[in-house]
Amino acid sequence: MSDTDDPMAINVDVTCPLPRSHDAERITLAYGDGGRLSRNFVREWILSRFRNPALEALGDAAVLKSSGRLAFTTDSYTVTPLFFPGGDIGTLAVCGTVNDLAVSGARPRWLSLALIIEEGLRWETLGRVLDSIQRTANAAGVSVVTGDTKVVPRGCVDQLMMTTSGLGELFGEAPLEASRLQVGDAIIVSGPIGQHGAAILCARDELGFEPAPVSDCACLHVPLMALQQAGLQPRATRDATRGGVAAVLHEWCQANGVAIDLEDDELPASPEVRAVCELLGLDPLFLACEGTFVAAVPPALIDSVLRVLRQHHVSRAATVIGRVVASRSTPVCVRRAAGRQVPLDEPAGSPLPRIC
To answer: Could you tell me which of 258, 281, 246 has the C-alpha nearest to residue 183?
Structure first.
């Protein structure tokens, strides 16, 4: 009698997690199991790129030294496609975490890096992403000091996901919070809006725009620290990621009980982004940015703030797009063509999922 005829037989699908000769170009489950292959992976792929004393200890936690107050943030990244014009998931992870610290008034210092890798991902793909992380972290002056790796079966994740946490030292005297907004404050954006969302949309759906929109992935701590060093303290700053500038402004109005008026003619958007929005019926105000922040600035500081921001490449196109006004029933409005003032709805959800 065969096993299949035996009612007591148990069928077990057993696969060997160890790499076979034809798996040399791809990652297998064994690299996430904590054994020799895991150790080799960490040393050959991680330590070789992010070598520093805190990471080389390979402990369960990194021991760090700081003499000031700390800010802490964490975020996960699951963008599709992994590579897009202007960046990739690695660039995105470092910039996103650095920027969350920077707009909170902190100088980024340390990052953790946790990778969730789908079985079968090519080593070449992972290497490209890790190289991007290395370049971006080095340029930002931050160190990857701890992390984790998991390899999961095919289909459990889409190629590669990661979580980064960041620690930074506060450099401002007062927190940059929306509760500090006052009527008359100027709303400034540091550069063109909607670049990242438009770039992901066109890359994912292969829309064929020429030239294609390019993501604005960039670290923003340098111009923000320059403002602090010049004694120019914004009321509040935020990076306009998911939900775009519209989401930031609605959050500020809700937190402070004020309203905001925007000028459509002043909204900076590249011709590529405008073309995508016009064709697909989108608004740049709702599309994500990954290298643009929004700042509320007291009236007396506007010219000085713009002068400092425009000295830095990532904020050279900084411009005033609106003003804080007294509370009303429609928190955010945009003055469109012919002077018509139109309410700007709060984003109910992202028009494009998996952008970061």
So the answer is: 258
> What are 184's two structure tokens?
């008359």
- Paired with 88 in beta bridges are 83
Q: What value does the CA radius of gyration of the chain take, rounded to a whole number of Å?
A: 23
Tokens of 112: 């953790």
Tokens found for residue 196: 């990242």
CB atoms closer than 10 angstroms to residue 296: 27
C-alpha distances in Å from residue 270, one per residue of 43, 116, 178, 192: 43, 35, 28, 6
CA 242 – CA 246 distance, rounded (Å): 10
Helical residues (DSSP H) of 178-316, grouped into ranges: 195-205, 221-229, 244-256, 271-280, 302-309
SS3 category, 45? helix
Q: What is the pLDDT of residues 60-81, one digit of tens each?
A: 788 888 878 899 999 999 999 9
Rounded to 5 degrees, φ, ψ at 11 are -90, 120
Which pLDDT does position 2 carry in this prediction? 46
Mean pLDDT of 150-159: 94
pLDDT at 22 over 60: no
Could you give the dihedral angle defined by the CA atoms of residues 327, 328, 332 and 337, in that order, rounded to the nearest 10 degrees? -120
Domain boundaries, the chain: 21-170, 178-343
What's the number of CA atoms in the CB half-sphere (13 Å) around residue 5?
2
Cα separation, 181 vs 254, in Å, equals: 11
For the domain spanning 178-343, the CATH number is: 3.90.650.10
**Of 145, 155, 153, 85, the residue nearest 114 (C-alpha):** 145
Residue 12 has pLDDT above 50, yes or no: no
Q: pLDDT, tens digit, for every residue of 249-265?
A: 999 999 889 999 999 99
Q: Which CATH class is domain 21-170?
A: alpha beta
Model confidence pLDDT, tens digit, residues 115-153: 999 999 999 999 999 999 999 999 999 999 999 999 999
Strands 160-170 and 70-77: antiparallel
- Alpha carbon distance 276, 239 (integer Å): 22
